[in-house]
Amino acid sequence: MGRGKIEIKKIENPTNRQVTYSKRRAGIMKKASELTVLCDAQLSLVMFSSTGKFSEYCSPTTDTKSIYDRYQQVSGINLWSSQYEKMQNTLNHLKEINQTLRREIRQRMGEDLDGLEIKELRGLEQNMDESLKLVRTRKYHVISTQTDTYKKKLKNSQETHRNLLRELEAEHAVYYVDDDPNSYDGALALGNGPSYLYSFRSQPSQPNLQGMGYGPHDLRLA
Fold first, then answer.
1. Reported pTM
2. Taking every annotated instance into account, which residue ranges of this chain make up the domain MADS-box (predicted)?
3. How far apart are CA 114 and CA 117, in angstroms?
């Protein structure tokens, strides 16, 4: 039995539609390749599925651009005229914006003001005042931030300096034993400051330590 005639209409089921498209796309690609080989024809085939998937075939002896160029020459239709016109309009619009911005910059610098009316001059003045306020606000913020940073650094430096002084005082502490603070060694120790002075003297109630013979140079650590 032969195959029944298929009614040509849109397949409503998306899955069936995609399966049918894939099968028939492969068949068209095969036919195009066979036509190129059998008849030495130059073909360019472009397809887009309902989901936007792109497929193409082009004869090995040419390329797609060459096919389009030959089509324009034969048909007299310029495929790129509308696109070129759109790009030209976009370019002109961008040029106008660029000229406007350049003119505003010159006016903010005090140039090109001759053609401005009083209303435009007032608007320019107001815009510059607002810009100046923003710049000053940002400047004060930067100054405040830098000041806080420098204060923290200064505080850390002062703390480090105090720690170094304490270490230096500990290393230069003077220990001495002297019965007479008016002697040379006693005066030398006193000259180094009271924080460095640690005095060890024998008491009258300890006679066993009175005659041990420790002189001013017998026991001293500097």
1. 0.39
2. 1-61
3. 8
Sheet containing 220-221: order of strands: 197-199, 174-176, 220-221
> Looking at the 3D structure of the chain, how many domains does it have?
3
Token duo for residue 51: 């989901």
Q: Across the strands, what pairs with 197?
A: 174
The Cα 159–Cα 194 span in angstroms is 24
Do 71 and 83 lie in a common domain?
A: no
Our CA dihedral for 200, 201, 206, 208, rounded to 10 degrees, sits at 90
pLDDT digits (tens, 9 = 90+) for 1-19: 556 677 788 888 989 999 9
Spatial separation of the C-alpha atoms in residues 123 and 126, rounded to whole Å: 5
- Residue 59's closest CA among 69, 70, 48, 67? 67
Domain enclosing residue 156, as ranges: 118-173
Residue 104 lies in a domain: yes
State pLDDT tens for residues 97-152: 999 999 888 888 888 788 788 888 888 888 889 888 999 999 999 999 999 999 99
